[in-house]
Amino acid sequence: MVEPDDHRVIMDCGVSRLMYYSVAFSAQYDDFVILSNIPGHIVQPVIDRSKHEWTHGVPGLRRESLDEKNGWLLFRHLPTGAFLRFRYCNWHHPAHKKPRSLETVHFWETRCETPVTAEEERTLKTIPQMHPDSERLLSGLTARLWLFSKGEGWAVSGLIWNNIPRRRIDDGGYSFTYLWGDGIDWVLRWGGSGSVPAADVARALVHERVGIEGASSFRVNANRWEVRLGVARIALEYRSHERRQDCNCGEMA
Prior knowledge:
alpha+beta, five-stranded mixed beta sheet
């Protein structure tokens, strides 16, 4: 769903489920890495298990190769040629780079070496066009979704999982994330008891050490900030939604 009070369904791929795992992102140009202690398990939200007709996952994503010794699963996104890599990371013992075993069942269930299907093409066409500045801004946001700094007192933390000690927001609603826009104008909204302030997300995007080069921000009000890069801009909004009885709130994105 595009927003909790909007019944339009654009893509039912379950990518939002990645926000509910303990992960970290490491982005290089056209090679995006998702770090987890269970990389073989968390591939499920983004892949399509069907070997015949596309029904689920990120359209155009195909399995490429795996390295069980070093603990990574590699996918290629056919429309862009970019790589998506799921890699093992031991949070409790960071020096342990190699897993004892790597779950590969879900990896082998995905398709490979098949062109983009007609159904995938139709889904890709529903995604709004992005200005090049928006692509840089949104990819920069994605790469920084799990940043936090206890020393400086700010966190992005997947927007709804606060990783620094502070008073939790008690708004009586449920956790959700929502991103939408077109061209140069985009909006990111989120809410829930574990949410981080909009000011924290803006700070991460323009941080002097880990921010997006050339980005600037300004405060609109206590729950809304805007970040700009070139001609592109994204509104960052914390928002509370009352729980609705006729929806699966855990799958909102």
